[in-house]
């Protein structure tokens, strides 16, 4: 007897289900953070409500959501547990792109899409390497794909492979060993013989994202699993649509962390009544000003996220530069929100008995996710100076 295919609720139930799910994740977040392990129970709950098919086209059984709806979902879930939301973010980005790209063999894209809907099969791009760092800054991957009569043989190591223990597929960035090497991606089943996960993730923030190393030791990959192999010079300017999906969903995630911090800070200010004050902290002008500044930053972030997502869904994606500005602005605003809340809360804000210190550790990861601030500013500066 086959199990039922999970489906996302009817539109009028979407936000109720998401709010309930976010509360469930929030209740587990501290435990998963302390354990520092991938929240497999959270992943199971995402599957149970059909979220893995959110950005899969309707013709494949998915919800066919665009970037705006995906950003709303990620923002809400990140208020509960951003580590889990990050795993889903990377999956939704891939399905937001692979079904629209000529570089993907159509049959392969359809197979991956249907697996997301029927089995909750997760996918993420595995790109970063110990020597290379992020390939977004340039360079050739050390992970090698060797063509053989039975398919591709892949050897190498990827780091910061978010959610790798729960993935069904890894989209692995490789260089071929051909006389004239090509660079691109291979879709690798994560249960392939010769693939192993090394548990290296021991991080300040997003502790439960399971972003371990993945090692490929002569892993056999079917020949038709090659995706967009090109000569190195063929990888020129970034794709604006890809940059928009990446920037908007990461911005939504860190905005969600800041909103969780806002909720905690508001409740703290209303409930805390120091004996020397005779009233709650919310009565103090400096707390009122801080709460207003937090509200201002988050209101601006919401408009930025929504505007860029809707433009992309209309087929008018922002420039790569504007997507970088969005991600940088929203994440810096989110960091400022959480830091201000911690500053005013004092010792309770840094106590592990409260979630605010975890929000601080998590939101700081926004400065590390690509595109990073220095790269955004430098690229914009070169353009402004005509260089």
Automatic annotation (TrEMBL):
Start and end residues of each Acyl-CoA dehydrogenase C-terminal domain: 250-369
Residue ranges of domain Acyl-CoA oxidase/dehydrogenase middle in the record: 129-219
Keywords: Flavoprotein, Oxidoreductase
Listed Pfam families: Acyl-CoA_dh_2, Acyl-CoA_dh_M, Acyl-CoA_dh_N
Annotated ranges, domain Acyl-CoA dehydrogenase/oxidase N-terminal: 21-92
Protein name according to UniProt: Alkylation response protein AidB-like acyl-CoA dehydrogenase
